[in-house]
Design a protein that fits this description.
The protein is α+β, with helices and mostly antiparallel strands and 623 residues long. It folds into four domains: 120 residues, no CATH class; 178 residues, no CATH class; 67 residues, no CATH class; 210 residues, Porin. Helices cover 29% and strands 31% of the residues.
Length: 623
């Protein structure tokens, strides 16, 4: 290799610019350049690690055939390849497949001035680059989607904004995701997503596809984080995006996910990381915070944020523009399947007020079509709305641009939590400490997340006194989705639901009766002002010191006294399947005060076989 290195260096040295000779005097030094290692997606951005490897797993990404800890071999192979003569298919030439590497080598070695270098015309890359017409780049954050484990925490992708493009929907976008077989078993999907087994890749599509899928079908709000990048940085980043389109990666829900790889892609042209290299898990909100607080070579990394409401959020906005009288009339029209001529209250309105109702009902119908595409009556009702609107004056009757924007996700609380406090349990006092990997619960600050939802994973609580240290609980997963309507029109039969599994104490009058469990419940909820009430039925399975299957029923209330002060009270009954005996009635009450963005204090009282009182401080953090 030394002989090859000397030969390559000799051929290049006569053509290096004075700048390159002053700053890069050794190919070995250049191969350890941080940006070169980023172009190769090495896991460690310093040389000398024999076990270092790239996040890219596809062999054809590496011209040397070595993706394990040999950036020098890859540098030499790239220099060889870009100086190769024209091949039969120009698009297969290294200059066309790796334009960002060529830009890097030109900057540091002035390779285009070498006598052996011939510039290759690259039709595919040039056409793609011209079609994209990029003048700025945005990171799009799509809110969480409870129906997909990979998207519960949200999703990130890039949008490549065209110069002078009138329609944002026609811009290119770059998405990163797992390559999942059609009709994959959900259990297999979750297990392989957590423990590995899927390849992942970047894909480029026009933005309207993602806008339709996330905003119209899955009814997810989005935020456009427009980046402040120099023209040179954008050129390099876009060239590297082209290099990555054929590449394959490993995929993991928790760390090597969309958020991680979007961050690593952007870090190619940033002076500092968006997320810590020591991160054990990465969430889209963490990357959003990194972007909001980050720097580029152009100054502040974040240029602007634009809220992109989902179809359901647009419905809520249109609904809020109606008076109470109009809302009531619209509800009557829905209940009568849009019998306009038979609704005297509607007929008594002026034409503008009628048009406002019809426009809001159009939006309502569109939401129903996405939620229930199988309902044939929806098409009939839409035709009735069209006929009614055509009989009214032309023009928009309602404001179309949402003026009440939701808080962007980077303003939310950090996802991970440490807790410490005290616990009075069965006439004994304990010190308590806890850890939660992610993400939020139903009493924490609801900025930039669902108001009445609970999404927690790996939540551990330990108690100790002078004689004992005990694991009080380990919640592997704890999810509550207390569905609540955003408007009063809905006739949908949506359910509240909860799933929880882990390790806990069988009874609350002991701390030595730990048992494994899994439970699921289904019910209904009703929201009013800043509160929600819910009732659920379900089942619970115990395994360990006692194997048992029980039926569960619970009734609860969550209320917000203010933005910072919230409370929850829940009554729960567990009975054996044959109903011949039951566990003691359980009462749980919690009061939570949000002291600061990253701190809260919480009082908890549990009553069943015994009374437990706990007071703890929760500190929220992120990598």
């Amino acid at each position: 290799m030394k002989a090859r290195l000397i030969l390559v260096w000799t051929l290049l040295s006569c053509s290096l610019s004075a700048f390159a000779q002053d700053n890069i005097t050794d190919l070995e030094l250049l191969s350890g350049h941080e940006q070169w290692l980023k172009l190769l997606h090495y896991k460690r951005l310093t040389t000398g690690h024999d076990d270092n490897e790239s996040y890219v797993v596809s062999d054809d990404f590496f011209l040397s055939g070595k993706k394990h800890a040999d950036p020098l071999e890859e540098l030499i192979a790239t220099l060889d390849a870009i100086n190769m003569p024209m091949v039969a298919e120009a698009n297969n030439h290294a200059q066309c497949k790796f334009p960002a590497r060529l830009m890097f080598l030109q900057q540091h070695l002035n390779v285009m001035a070498a006598p052996s270098f011939t510039k290759i015309d690259c039709p595919d890359y040039n056409n793609w680059r011209t079609d994209a017409g990029i003048h700025s780049i945005s990171v799009i954050f799509a809110s969480g989607y409870m129906s997909n484990p990979a998207s519960m925490y949200g999703h990130l992708f890039l949008k490549l904004n065209r110069n002078g493009n009138k329609s944002d929907l026609l811009n290119y976008s770059l998405n990163y995701g797992a390559i999942v077989p059609d009709a994959e078993n959900p259990i297999v999907y979750i297990l392989r997503g957590i423990f590995g087994g899927y390849d992942a890749a970047y894909s480029d599509k026009q933005f309207y596809r993602h806008h339709h899928n996330y905003g119209d079908v899955e009814l997810r709000d989005m935020w456009d984080y427009k980046l402040n990048l120099s023209a040179a940085d954008m050129e390099l980043l876009v060239a590297h995006i082209w290099e990555l389109l054929p590449a394959r990666f490993d995929y993991y829900f928790i760390d090597e996910n969309c958020a991680f790889h979007i961050a690593k892609l952007l870090e190619l042209i940033l002076p500092a990381p968006i997320i810590s290299d020591d991160s054990l898990w990465v969430f889209p909100s963490s990357v959003a915070k990194g972007i909001a607080n980050g720097k580029s070579l152009n100054g502040e990394l974040l240029d602007a944020i634009t809220y992109i409401p989902s179809r359901e959020s647009l419905l809520a906005f249109h609904y809020q523009q109606l008076s109470q009288v109009q809302q009531d009339i619209a509800l009557k029209l829905i209940q009568s399947d849009y019998q306009f001529k038979q609704n005297q209250a509607y007929l008594n309105l002026d034409s503008d007020s009628q048009s406002q109702i019809v426009e809001a009902l159009f939006q309502y119908q569109d939401v129903l079509k996405q939620k229930h595409p199988e309902q044939s009556a929806l098409a009939t009702n839409s035709r009735k709305l069209v006929r009614e609107r055509l009989a009214q004056p032309p023009g928009k009757a309602l404001k179309q641009n949402v003026t009440t924007e939701k808080a962007p996700p980077h303003l939310g609380m950090p996802p991970s939590k440490f807790s410490f406090g005290g616990l009075h349990h069965n006439d004994q006092d304990y010190v308590s400490t806890g850890f939660r990997m992610t993400y939020f619960d139903d009493l924490s600050n609801s900025i930039a997340r669902s108001k009445f939802a609970n999404l927690e994973m790996l939540d551990v609580e330990i108690i100790a006194n002078s004689t004992d240290i005990k694991i009080l609980k380990v919640d592997l997963i704890d999810i509550d989705s207390l569905f609540s309507e955003s408007i009063d029109w809905s006739r949908e039969d949506n359910f509240a639901w909860s799933v929880r599994a882990g390790y806990e104490q069988l009874r609350n009058d002991c701390i030595d009766c730990g048992i494994y469990f899994g439970e699921g419940e289904l019910g209904k909820s009703y929201a009013f002002t800043n509160s929600i009430v819910y009732a659920m039925l379900g089942g619970k399975v115990y395994a360990g010191v006692k194997d048992d299957v029980v039926l569960t029923a619970k009734l609860g209330l969550i209320t917000g006294f203010s933005v910072k002060l919230k409370a929850k009270i829940e009554i729960r009954q567990l009975s054996r399947v044959n109903l011949n005996s039951a566990y003691d009635l359980q009462l749980n009450a919690e009061l939570n005060y949000n002291i600061a963005k990253d701190w809260e204090i919480r009082l908890q009282i549990q009553q069943a076989e015994a009374t437990t009182i706990g007071l703890k401080f929760n500190y929220f953090w992120d990598f």
